[in-house]
Amino acid sequence: MSQPSQAPAPLLQVSDLKRYFDVKNSLLSGKSGHLRAVDGVTFNVTAGETLGLVGESGCGKSTLGRVVSRLLPATDGEILFEGRDIIDIDRKALLALRADIQSVFQDPSASLNPRMTAFNLIAEPLVIQKIGTRASRRDKVLDLLETVGLRREFADRYPHEFSGGQRQRIGIARALALDPKLLILDEPVSALDVSIQAQIINLLEDLQKRLDLTYLFISHDLSVVQHVADRVAVMYMGQIVELADNEAFYANPQHPYSIALLSALPLPDPTIARKRILLEGDLPDPANLPQGCRFQSRCAHVTDRCRVGPEPEMQEISPGHIARCHNLADIHAPIEQKQTA
Amino acid sequence: MTDTATNTAAAPASPSRWKDVWRQYKHHKGAFYGGIFLLFITLFVMVGPYIWTLEFDKLDIRAKDMRPIYTALWDSDAKVGWNHPLGTDNLGRDLLAQLMQGGRASMAVGWTAMVLALLIGTLVGVLAGFFKALDGILMRFTDLVLSLPILPLLLVAVTLFRERLLSVFSPETGMFILIVAIIGVTSWMQTARIVRGDVLALKEREFVLAARSVGTSPYKIITQHLLPNVLSPIMVSATLGLATAIITESALSFLGVGFPSDFPTWGKLLSDAVPRMTEYPERVMLPGIAISMTVLAVNYMGDGLRDALDPRIRGR
């Protein structure tokens, strides 16, 4: 799937990335195994774009974000940032890399130290990276407050004195302090009210245009991703099962899991009736995956081949649109939205 | 945003923050009066001997067993006199002078031992909570120290080290170091356990991850993010630790392994007076009141300080 034939080299290249967690089973059985949180993930992010990463809770999307931002070690695989490997690097290079890849976390009330003022929270990255003098840092922090739509006078306040949306703005200002190239947005709006979500998303889009940022946007909310992402990757049980351009994905999802997810998307028009696909069956135990396809226990189109054969490989349906399923040809049907008069 | 007034208002001025802390502290009635009382008692033991110049160890056998001056209110036969307002003990030593001198020793032992225990406890707790590899070793060591019987240990330590310390320092200084060290190294375990538990919970919070994501070193994470957030439990164990230290010192004196016998401390005054406390209750009550009032004052102060240092409470 190395198809980017155009000029710009991807900012981030992830290939066959794996992250396993050791699991200790109960005391008596003594068995231990791996939980495959991220299991062979490959994707590219081009500079300036937004890659939306969607999936249900527990599918490994946050773990993937943390491995890419080097907050968790990778078990196996390769991550190239601007063409350079970032897994095997020394402490000094890692510190420099931290400035280029920054994260915004899900819950701003948990990701801001309650004992620090907004000023100190935003200044902390600059202090740690030893950037600027005391005076220049002060100017930068106050500018950042304005950049994210907060008043300069708020600098002396503590996190508990802000609303949820304002707190997330501080989180974003903090991530922007080091002028990063890539922002890992780990569910940046999931903890916020819907009305605030829109504001934060508009802010993020505006910042992307102004500061030339690249986003890895992790979310479980398909409608948010539809709004912000240029391309969409769907994750299921540690693997990407479908990766496509935004329009292609929402118009013509290929993988049965994507189809089911999209059928659950609320539509703004209540008069439109549609076929909801209810996923039945249970999630497999991530520490003890079944043979064959990982989606077999919940798939409506499951065949014997899915149950016994090797895991399905990524198939290219159209340029840039890939999915991981044996039966694409048989299923191939976009969601039907029948209009009832 | 360009006018200077806005800029100065936005300046993160730390002096104003300490003013906020002081305002909140004053707001806490108990802490405020506790602080005043502690100031008073500190002046009492530090400056008092210069005003009440009677020697604390001067024997005056003719003036022995005098009652405090207030006893005259209900007992006109009582042996009282203004030259010994709080009475004397069975060797004629002035109780007021002894309380002042004893307070110096007790306060010094209490504060130093408490600070020592706090430092060890916080260090062990933070290391055990933060570094998974050290957790097992350090906490089992904590359990080990916790299970040691303190009094026999103290007796052994005193017999082992007394001679060596006394050859270097004066008897009082030598004993002071020994007692502080022993109380310090035998009372840090509760603090260590509490701090470890809190650090374990805190280090999983997202703000620690956020700090790591900008490249903060483990040392900075501990000092900037973890320690300020475990301040409350540390403060509570500090106030309790002071009380324990003063009381342990009195237990040591009671067993005769504390300070030399002619060197008063609150704890020793109290235990010396126990055999005759039905006849002379004031000799138990006065040092007892001094100990408990000091401990209470420190407790309230700790409470107020904890609230004043917490921005979430201070804002109210």
Keywords:
A: alpha/beta, Rossmann fold, eight-stranded mixed β-sheet, four-stranded antiparallel β-sheet, disordered C terminus, B: 316 residues, mainly alpha, MetI-like fold, globular
Task: Itemize the secondary structure elements and their pairings.
The complex is a heterodimer of chains A (341) and B (316).
Chain A: E1 12-24, E2 32-45, E3 50-54, H1 61-68, E4 76-81, E5 84-85, H2 91-100, E6 101-104, H3 108-111, H4 118-128, H5 134-147, H6 164-176, E7 182-186, H7 194-211, E8 214-219, H8 222-228, E9 231-236, E10 239-245, H9 246-251, H10 256-263, H11 304-308, E11 314-318, E12 321-324, H12 328-331
Chain B: H1 4-10, H2 14-27, H3 29-46, H4 48-51, H5 95-130, H6 132-147, H7 150-168, H8 171-186, H9 189-202, H10 206-213, H11 218-226, H12 231-255, H13 266-273, H14 282-309, H15 311-314
Helix pairs in contact in B: 2-14, 3-5, 3-14, 5-6, 5-8, 5-9, 5-12, 5-13, 7-8, 8-12, 9-12, 10-11, 12-13, 12-14, 13-14
Structural account:
The complex is a heterodimer of chains A (341) and B (316). Chain A is globular, with a radius of gyration of 21 Å. Chain A has twelve helices and twelve strands. The N and C termini of chain A lie far apart (44 Å). The longest helix of chain A has 18 residues. Chain A has 341 residues and is α/β, with parallel strands linked by helices. In chain A, 32% of the residues lie in helices and 23% in strands. In chain A, helix 7 links the parallel strand 7 and strand 8. By secondary structure, chain B is mostly helical. Chain B has a domain of 214 residues: MetI-like (MetI-like fold, Orthogonal Bundle), CATH 1.10.3720. Chain B is 72% helix and 0% strand. At the A-B interface, helix 2, helix 4 and helix 5 of A face helix 1, helix 10 and helix 11 of B.
> Biggest interface and which pair forms it?
A-B, 40 and 31 residues
The pLDDT mean of chain A sits at: 85
Helical element count of chain B? 15
Rounded to the nearest angstrom, the radius of gyration of chain A is 21 Å
Please bin the fraction of helical residues of chain A: 25-40%
- What name does CATH use for the topology of the domain at 101-314 in chain B? MetI-like fold
Q: What distance separates the N and C termini of chain B? A: 28 Å
Question: How is the main sheet of chain B built?
Answer: none
At the first level of CATH, the class of chain A is Alpha Beta
Number of strands of chain B: 0
